[in-house]
């Protein structure tokens, strides 16, 4: 909510400077995002009157203008705006002036013609495109009323006003209108707000004789009121109204539409205006109902929407003309030809409004207010004020009376609380009189019966419901800084990580030490991506109301998020990637299960070069064994009791069928590692990419062993090398297990150091060479002991694998 300080002064006798006021507002519970003044940094920008405008002699789109800027002689200015014309009052940046972004304007020539300065559009002096009137978006701004040439533009355009940007939470929707903000600031500054009394000059024609209204179900629109203004003239709004709107972030349209937006900003009550003559039928009936299946509506943004039976619509008795509380229909919009207008003020069922806005992707200022709540007491007041102002600005006549098929009467809420209770919660020692004074400043009536307070809450503060709300109001007005502070008493518990937290932190630190960078992806993804790279079968968890179609399902893997991250980097020429993500996946055993199981996973991705080329080394490309080495070291760091096994698999459809291994700890599947299927990689615009995914939750549930440090051995190691020619189907894991099984008590390590398959070996076979290391920690090993143990290994390998010793 952008709050104009000058507008606020219409209601309050403020003397506090804007920056100081913003600080006070923040300290009482509503955060202020910032205070800005648009004229800051600008200089020498004035109003100019165009005396003449002639085509440039050497251009088909430039014009040479003679402009009165209040000096002795007119300025010659070359201007390329398509809407420039003689007789206009415009914005002129004088020589050596400063416009938006600190741009300095100097004298110059344009295609040989001297130009003293520059005629500006609103954007060039700092206004956003979104608030510039459409007639001036692509050209210069023309003042709608005459202003003395040479006058600085800042005051006329409201640029000297300070704009306080309130960052409102959902529960403080009462401050989404200037009146609500005025009440809040009045309490902070201990002032009394003064608002104008609304009176409507009515014609002899009654509203009921011109239109009728019907609400099919009162729960859809508990309050629905209509007024009518006849014989209006559509024209631009006066400059004061336009400036208030664009400082609030709203684009001025015309005098009638601007009034509805102005009243929304004033009271926080959204209004809508219909062109009465566009309604079909002769009875001119407005009906509020649920949409029928198959009905369609073209909204003001010219988009067609297929409605559902959950959408509340405004109809003319025959067809929809607006989505209730969200956006009007294009067919009934206010146009330059409009002469009779129907003004709508209402309270719509807030949940339905929010769902409709989400369903059709039509979030608006109106829907934001309706879904958070509006002040029941101001519905009729805002309607009357809009009718009076439309009649005044449009030179029309407001018809007599209001058509109102449903109407809510404002009801004050009553909260009873003990003054002692307030002091107990806040830790204060405030007197009853002080508490009553603080509550009175909010406009709350308080009855005191020996410390028992009966607090009457006006309808404009619908966020106050219970005792805690009243206590909060006392605390924030008394000042949080003034509340007493005490140290906690009682036994202190030293903070520490539990076993799971330690393991998760260890995982992150280990992978970062291995050179991987942490990535964080959305937990919401598409249905297709959610069900890829799954460790085990599961049912998807689908959101009822996703923000977008790409965020409809909770993820069941981490790899698709890493692939998205990799694609993002590759698109920006970053091709050497080493990423990991640790997070939760969401798995449901059955579709009927209400809430999914949340499991901790860790996944990694490597692509490109693992060693970058330099003068000293050649580039080395990531391969299967690079990422397997990372996984192997990670799993080893958990000190698991059971052995880790890698089994070749083609079970994972998104992985390369010949370069993927399932990871087992004992007999339990805990993850997989391998190359992403080339088709998946191509779809993500990636080259050869390797990934792993491990179920950390399952790992942590497995038995682990404690490592015990030992001193360095006193006796030497003895090594033996062996080269075995075996069938290609024999794996390294099989050979290592066989060697360890027969290696004896002194065998401490088995290391593969060479693999060969080629012309010197029979087809279908390969050579694998190992180094076996023997160590006796209590004595020196003899040659005979090592040879005997080694020969047992050789014999076992020959017998088991039909191996040939080379």
UniProtKB/TrEMBL annotation:
It is an enzyme of class 6 (ligase). It is found in: Cytoplasm. Residues 713-806 form the FDX-ACB domain. PROSITE patterns: B5 (PS51483), FDX_ACB (PS51447), TRBD (PS50886). The keyword rRNA-binding does not apply. GO terms for biological process: phenylalanyl-tRNA aminoacylation. Keywords: Aminoacyl-tRNA synthetase, ATP-binding, Cytoplasm, Ligase, Magnesium, Metal-binding, Nucleotide-binding, Protein biosynthesis, RNA-binding, tRNA-binding. Mg(2+) binds at residues 463, 469, 472-473. SMART domains: B3_4 (SM00873), B5 (SM00874), FDX-ACB (SM00896). CDD domains: PheRS_beta_core, tRNA_bind_bactPheRS. GO terms for cellular component: phenylalanine-tRNA ligase complex. Residues 39-154 form the TRNA-binding domain. GO terms for molecular function: ATP binding; catalytic activity, acting on a protein; magnesium ion binding; phenylalanine-tRNA ligase activity; transferase activity; tRNA binding. Pfam families: B3_4, B5, FDX-ACB, tRNA_bind, tRNA_synthFbeta. It catalyses: tRNA(Phe) + L-phenylalanine + ATP = L-phenylalanyl-tRNA(Phe) + AMP + diphosphate + H(+). Binds 2 magnesium ions per tetramer. Its cofactor is Mg(2+). Its main location: cytoplasm. Residues 410-485 form the B5 domain. Its EC number is 6.1.1.20. HAMAP family: Phe_tRNA_synth_beta1 (MF_00283). Tetramer of two alpha and two beta subunits. Belongs to the phenylalanyl-tRNA synthetase beta subunit family. Type 1 subfamily. This is Phenylalanine--tRNA ligase beta subunit. It comes from Latilactobacillus fuchuensis. The gene is pheT.
């Amino acid at each position: 909510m952008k709050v104009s300080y000058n507008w606020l002064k219409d209601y309050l006798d403020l003397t506090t400077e804007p920056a100081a006021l913003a600080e006070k507002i923040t300290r009482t519970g509503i955060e202020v995002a910032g205070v800005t003044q648009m004229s800051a940094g600008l200089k020498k920008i004035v109003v100019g009157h165009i005396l003449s405008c002639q085509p440039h002699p050497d251009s088909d789109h430039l014009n040479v203008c003679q402009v009165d800027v209040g000096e002795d002689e007119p300025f010659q200015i070359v201007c390329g705006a398509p809407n420039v014309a003689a007789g206009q009052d415009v914005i002129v940046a004088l020589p050596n002036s400063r416009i938006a972004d600190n741009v300095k304007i100097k004298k110059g020539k344009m295609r040989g013609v001297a130009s003293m300065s520059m005629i500006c559009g609103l954007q060039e002096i700092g206004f956003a495109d979104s608030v510039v009137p459409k007639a001036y978006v692509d050209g210069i701004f023309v003042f709608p009323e005459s202003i003395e040439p040479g006058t600085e533009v800042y005051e006329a355009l409201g640029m000297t006003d300070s704009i306080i940007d309130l960052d409102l939470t959902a529960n403080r929707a009462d401050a989404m209108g200037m009146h609500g903000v005025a009440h809040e600031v009045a309490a902070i500054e201990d002032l009394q707000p003064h608002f104008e009394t609304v009176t409507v000059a009515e014609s002899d024609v009654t509203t009921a004789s011109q239109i009728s209204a019907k609400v099919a179900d009162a729960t859809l629109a508990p309050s629905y009121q209509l007024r009518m203004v006849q014989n209006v003239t559509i024209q631009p709004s006066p400059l004061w109204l336009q400036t208030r709107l664009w400082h609030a972030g709203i684009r001025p349209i015309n005098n009638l539409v601007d009034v509805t937006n102005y009243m929304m900003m004033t009271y926080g009550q959204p209004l809508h205006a219909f062109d009465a003559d566009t309604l079909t039928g002769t009875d001119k009936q407005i009906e509020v109902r649920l949409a029928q299946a198959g009905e369609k509506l073209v909204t003001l943004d010219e988009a067609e929407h297929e409605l559902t039976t959950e959408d509340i619509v405004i109809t003319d008795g025959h067809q929809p003309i607006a989505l209730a509380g969200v956006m009007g229909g294009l067919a009934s919009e206010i146009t330059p030809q409009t002469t009779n207008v129907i003004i709508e003020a209402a309270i719509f069922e807030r949940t339905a409004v929010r769902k409709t806005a989400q369903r059709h992707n039509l979030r608006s200022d109106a829907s934001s207010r309706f879904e958070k709540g509006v002040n029941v007491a101001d519905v009729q007041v805002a309607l009357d004020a809009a009718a009076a102002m439309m009649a005044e600005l449009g030179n029309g006549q407001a018809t007599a009376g209001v058509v109102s098929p449903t109407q809510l009467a404002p009801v004050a809420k009553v909260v009873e609380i003990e003054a002692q209770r307030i002091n107990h919660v806040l830790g204060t020692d405030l007197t009853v009189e002080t508490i009553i004074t603080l509550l009175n400043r909010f406009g709350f009536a308080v009855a005191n019966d020996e410390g028992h307070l009966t607090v009457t809450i006006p309808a404009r503060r619908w966020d106050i419901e219970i005792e805690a709300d009243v206590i909060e109001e006392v605390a924030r007005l008394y000042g949080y800084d003034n509340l007493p502070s005490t140290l906690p008493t009682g036994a202190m518990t030293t903070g520490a990580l539990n076993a799971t937290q330690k393991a998760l932190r260890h995982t992150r630190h280990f992978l970062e030490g291995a050179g991987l960078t942490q990535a964080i992806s959305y937990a919401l993804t598409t249905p297709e991506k959610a069900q890829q790279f799954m460790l085990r079968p599961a049912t998807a968890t689908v959101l009822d109301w996703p923000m977008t179609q790409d965020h409809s399902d909770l993820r069941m893997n981490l790899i698709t998020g890493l692939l998205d991250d990799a694609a993002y980097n590759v698109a920006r020429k970053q091709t050497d990637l080493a990423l990991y993500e640790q997070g939760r996946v969401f798995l449901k055993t059955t579709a009927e299960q209400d809430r999914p199981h949340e499991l901790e996973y860790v996944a990694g991705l490597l692509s490109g070069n693992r060693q970058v080329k330099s003068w000293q080394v050649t580039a080395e490309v990531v391969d299967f064994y690079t990422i397997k080495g990372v996984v192997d070291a990670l799993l080893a760091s958990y000190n698991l009791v059971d052995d880790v096994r890698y089994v070749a698999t083609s079970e994972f459809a998104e992985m390369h069928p010949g370069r993927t291994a399932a990871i087992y700890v004992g007999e339990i599947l805990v993850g997989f590692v391998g190359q992403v299927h080339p088709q998946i990689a191509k779809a993500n615009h990636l080259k050869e990419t390797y990934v792993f995914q491990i179920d950390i939750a399952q790992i942590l549930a497995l038995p682990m062993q404690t490592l015990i440090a030992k001193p360095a051995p006193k006796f030497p190691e003895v090594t033996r090398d062996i080269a075995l020619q075996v069938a290609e189907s024999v794996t390294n894991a099989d050979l290592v297990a066989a060697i360890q099984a027969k290696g004896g008590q002194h065998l401490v390590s088995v290391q593969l150091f060479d693999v060969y398959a080629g012309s010197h070996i029979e087809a279908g076979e390969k050579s694998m060479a190992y180094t076996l290391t023997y160590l006796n920690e209590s004595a020196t090993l003899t040659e005979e002991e090592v040879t005997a143990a080694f020969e047992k290994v050789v014999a076992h390998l020959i017998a088991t694998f039909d191996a040939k010793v080379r």
